[in-house]
Amino acid sequence: MGKPVNIFVCQSCGSVHGKWAGRCDACGEWNALVEEVPAQSAPKSGKRRKSRAIKFVELDGETEDVPRLSTGIDELNRVTGGGFVPGSALLIGGDPGIGKSTLLLQVAGFMAQNGLQGADCKTAYISGEESTAQVKRRAKRLGLSDAPVYLAAETSLGPILDGLMVEKPNVIIIDSIQTMWTDQLGAAPGTVAQVRACAQELTRYAKKRGAVMLLVGHVTKDGQIAGPRVVEHMVDAVLYFEGDRANQFRILRAHKNRFGPTDEIGVFEMGGKGLSEVANPSALFLDGRGEAASGAAVFAGLEGTRPVLTEIQALVAPAAFGTPRRAVVGWDNGRLAMVLAVLEARCGVSFGGKDVYLNVAGGLKIAEPAADLAVAAALASSIFDKPLPADCVVFGEISLSGDVRQASRSDARLKEAAKLGFKRAIAPINQTKKPANQSNQLPIIEISTLPDLITRVEAL
After folding, report:
1. How far is Cα 193 from Cα 180, in angstroms, rounded to an integer?
2. How far apart, in whole angstroms, are the C-alpha atoms of residue 127 and residue 108?
3. What is the pLDDT of residues 264-313, one digit of tens each?
4. Beta strands of 304-376 (E only): which ranges?
């Protein structure tokens, strides 16, 4: 038998190359190819291995509802679609120090203390980055030192699976998947091959035993979960922990969920005793607003099924150097360039020779197109130095022709704004359909085109 020829695997996208190169041909990432030993295939034989034929079923017939296990944290239950599903695997990613381990330790402590529908809930926490003493100190700080959680510090997959076979826990937490390795592969821990193999084995165990598997994943400098994207396809849900470590607020967002809606968010506040839930995020993001100031607009947005009000701040200032600067925090940079182009081409508002700064207060990241109108209102308010009414919310999508398009679920946005004390709304002209409950309906300042908005801001 000849000596196996090593392969080079891209640590960013997982593509396989026959020889080393400085740049991956598949994804274009530099210095991402790592040499690995390919897995040994089974020897070929003349006989065909016998296997069982799969059994097909029809689409009709009765099906059981998916059972749910409450996590004890309402915000986490909202993001997961009602709680954990037995036999599922979840991948949780986030920046270092954002609070992933703290949240999962709180979940493990609650489920171990309260059980499942009257029965005991065995919860295992396996750390590959910290020692058991470090995890115990964190549990003591969180007030969970008396929780009956099975704790271990191990990175080898073989002993971990053997221990799970013996204890048979209902909830398993692996912190983190990048530290796990199996001796079946010659690759180093953290490589694409190791992460893929370990995630596959752990997911297979969860499916076979009916346990809940929670995998913690590292993130790259771009904020994406490190390792091959195939890991995200293996699991049932992918959750991202967002936020600034300098800010006490954290946002848990669902990017994939086979058992519930995606793009749901849960809002938490980091304190001395761990993460606490924020029941009303709109009041949180608007906390600290003072008198009406130019360049500030309140956007009535949607995060999944939840209406959330946030303040969008804009500053237009003369450029100190020859090239104007465009800085964005919490929004898409390309979307800002589009709004600026429409304002210049359709409304005659020039931003040449001016720096533009845009910020979403509270650390929230907005991806909804309905924020276009609020951004345009904040920019117009800043460049004209005309404060918008403090009791007004704004939402609507801007087209390249300068028209303002409708936003989905306007009744929910208006109801949330009315609950927080706002008196009026700037919205597209076709948003005047009265909802079933008209007691919370706000008066709407109808806007059909972007020049209409600029005219109203100039007249303030």
Report:
1. 11
2. 13
3. 889 998 888 889 998 888 887 887 676 778 999 999 999 888 899 999 99
4. 306-318, 326-329, 354-360
CA 34/CA 49 separation, integer angstroms: 34
Q: What pLDDT, in 10s, does the model give residues 401-412?
A: 999 999 988 888
Query: CB of 377 within 8 A of CB of 451?
Result: no
Report how far residue 313's alpha carbon sits from residue 364's, in angstroms, rounded to the nearest whole number: 13
Could you tell me if 19 and 8 are in contact, meaning their C-beta atoms sit under 8 angstroms apart?
Answer: yes
Owner of token pair 């080898």: 156
Q: Is 357 helix (H, G, I), strand (E, B) or coil?
A: strand
Q: Where are the alpha helices (DSSP H) in 313-363?
A: 333-347
Nearest-angstrom CA–CA distance, 283 and 311: 11
**Residue 162, CA distances (Å) to 120, 128, 166, 168, 197 in order:** 21, 16, 7, 10, 16
Q: Nearest 5°: phi and psi at 222? A: -85, 0
The three-class DSSP label of residue 349 is coil
Indicate the SS3 state at residue 177.
helix
CA 226, 229, 230 angle in degrees (round to 5)? 125
pLDDT band, residue 180 (cuts 50/70/90) = very high
Pairing of the two strands 354-360 and 306-318: antiparallel
| CA-based nearest residue to 8, from 39, 41, 32 | 32
DSSP code string of 88-114: -EEEEEE-TTSSHHHHHHHHHHHHHHH
Q: Is the full-model pTM beyond 0.90? A: no
Q: CA 425, 421, 335, 240: dihedral to nearest 10 degrees?
A: -150
Q: Are 300 and 372 in contact, with CB atoms under 8 Å apart?
A: no
**Of 372, 339, 379, residue with least CA distance to 358:** 379
